[in-house]
Amino acid sequence: MTDTALHRLLDLVPVHLLARDAEADGGTGPLTALLAAVARELDLLEADLDRLHDGFFVETCAEWLVPYLADLVGLAELPPDLGVTVSRRALVANTVAYRRRKGTVAVLEQVARDVTGWPARAVEHHPLLVGATHVNHVRADRPATVSLRGAARIEAAAVVSPPGPRGALDPLTHTAEVRRIPTRRGRYGIDHVAVHLFPTQAYEVGAPEADLPAGPNGGWSAARAAGDHWTFDPLGRAVPLYAPPRREEAVERLATEADLPVPLRPRRLLDLLGQARAGALPAAALPLGVRLRVGGVDQPDLTPDRIRVCHLEDPAPAAAPQVMVDPVTGRLRVHAPAAPDAVFVRYAYGGLADVGAGTYDRTAAHEALLASDPGAPVTADGPDAPPAAGQTEVSSGAPAPTGSVPTLAAGLAAAEASWAAPGSTTRGGTYVVSVADSAGYPGDLAVTVPAGTRLVLVAAGWPTRRRPDGEVLAPVPGRYAPDGLRPHLRGSLRITGEPGSSVVVDGLLVEGDVVVAPGQLGHLTVAHATVTGAVRVESAAGRPNSRLQLRLRRVVAGAVTLAATVPTATVDTCVLDATTGGGTALAGEGVHASLEGSTVRGAVRVRSLDASSCVLDGPVAVAHRQVGCVRFSYVAPGSRTPRRYRCVPADGEPGPLPVYAATDPASPAYPALAGSCPVTIREGGEDRAEPGVHHHLRRPLRLRAAQRQLDPYRPVGIELGIFGS
C-alpha cells in the first residue's frame, strides 16, 4: 500500500466523519483501517491496469508480449533469444516502416542494426566499380587510380574496427570481382551490397555528460608517463582512441563515420579540433580532453587550440602549455615551460564486451553480485544488504568531506580502525570502501578482515543528494553508484581473513597481484576487474584458507594460483592469459574448478573440473577424471580431462587450432575468435555460439538472425554479404 492511495481515499470522505474516526483510541479508527485495506487492493488494481495499458504498445510492453505484437503486424519469424543485451522490440516496432521502404539500402542497414543490436553500415558496391566512361556522361568521382594527394580518402579506406575487415568506409573505386559476396570473399560487383556490422563498443573515460563524482579529477583517468611521452592507457599500452558514436535513429539516412564505433582517425580529430577552435563545436563535444597538474596545482582543461595532432600540426607559437596527440597509438607529448606532475585525460577506448575493469555501468551486476555472495554477513533480520554498516570514500586529491580520504591505503586503514574501535558497529557487518575516481594509486596494499565481516572494495562514487531547496545532504553509507569509473591500483593487494570473513573486489584495475595471505578467509569475489599479475591464494600451518570459496566473474587476469588447501574456484566469463607469465593459467592441486564461458590461454592443473562453452588453449591435466564434465568447449590436444560432450577435438583425436582476432590485451578485439577460425571451434559453444569469454554475446547467432531477417528486404537480383564479426 502507498500513502498516496490512502490519502486519495481519505480526501473523498467528509471531514466530520474523519474527525469522529480520529477520536478513536490510538488516533486510527475503524474507518481509516477499512480504507487502508481498500487502498492496498486499489494499489494492486492500478498496477494491473498499468501493466495492461503498457502491454498495448511495443515500446512499453513486457518482453514476453513482443511475439504477440509481432503476429499483429504479420512478422512470422522472430530472431531467437540473443541474450539480455539484445531485444526484438525495435524490430517489431519498425516493421511497418521497413515495408514502406522495402528494397532500399537504408532499410537493410536499419534491419541489421535492430536485429543484432550492433551499429551497421550498408554499402552498395556498384558505384565503387571502375568502368569505361561514356564521353557524354563522364564520372570524375570514379578514377581508376588513387590520388596520393587525397590523404583523407586513403585514410578512410583503411579504417577498421576490430574484429571486422576494412571496407565499410572505403570511398575508393575498385575493379570488379567474380567471387560472390555471400561467401565474404568477393565484394565489388554490380549486384553486390555489403552490410558491415560493428560489434565493438566505445567506452568513455570521464564522459562530460556522465554524473561523475565531484572533485578536481572527476572521472578523468591519470595518464601514464613513458619516457618522453604519456599514454592515455593507464598501463602504458598503445591503445587506439575511439570517438563515441552518436545514435542514428532515422530509417532514411545511411550511417556515417560519426555514427559508428571506429578508431579515431588523425584527420578526423584535426577536423573536430578545427570546428572547436572556430566555435562551431563545444570543447566538451570533442572525443578527448587533457588536463595538467603543475606544481601540485590542477590547471584548467586545455583549450582546443592547445591540443595538436601529431604529424599533421606543428606546436602552437604560444608559450602556454600544449600537447601533441597521436590517436592511433593513444600517446601524447606535453610541451610546457615546466614539466607537469601529472596528466589527466578524457577519452574513449574500444572493447567487445563488459569484461575486465572498465567505465561501463555495473549497477545491476554489482547488486546481483552482493545478493548472491555466499559470504554476506547474516543479521537477525537476514542477510546484510545495503545500506552497509560503514563506508569510506576514496578520492585522490579531492577536498576531504566527511567520510572521504585521499588514498586507497587510507581507506583500508579507516575500515580497520572502524573494526578495531571499542563497541564497533561495523565489525560483523559489511564495510564498503568506494573509490570515486579513475586516478592512479601507487603502492602495495594490505588489509585484515575480522571474523564474520565483509569488505567491499568497489569502484563507485557516492551519488549527490539534494533537497528541493538546493541543500546538499550527507551521503548514506552503502548507497553508491558503480558506474563510469576505473581506478588504477599500481601495486598488489594482499588480503588476510579470519574465519567467516568475505572480500569483494569490483571494478578495479590492479597492476600487480591479488593475494590471499595465509589465514581463514571464507570467500573472495573478484568481479569486473583487470589483474595484470595473478590471483594467488597462499596457506601455512594452522592458517590454510581451507574453507575459501573463490569466485571470478568478468575478470581479465594473468593467472590463478591456488594453495592445495583451497576447495573450490568458480570462473565465469573471464580471460586467464598466462602466455607471457610462465604458461600456467590455473593451478590448484586440491581445487574443484568450475569454468563457464571463459578463455584460458595456458596450462590448467586442478583436482577436478567442470567446464562449459570455454576455450582451453593449453594442456589440461585433471587428477580426478571420474567426476566432472567438459562440454561445448575447445580443449587443447593431449589434455587429460573428465568425460567430454560435444567438444573440439574429440577424445584422443587431432583437431584444428583456434585463431584469435587479437592476442594483444591492448587490442579492442582481444581475445575474440577470428572469422578465419575453423567453424567447428568458432560455433562450438552451447547453442552454436562462440565459446570463450564472448560466449554471452552470441555473435554467430546474431549473424544468422541478421541473414534471415534481411532476406525479405533484399531487392530482386541483389546479392547480400554480411561482414564485421
From TrEMBL:
Spans annotated as Disordered: 373-403
InterPro entries xrefs: Tail_protein_I
Sequence ranges of Low complexity compositional bias: 373-390
Name of this protein: Phage tail protein (Tail_P2_I)
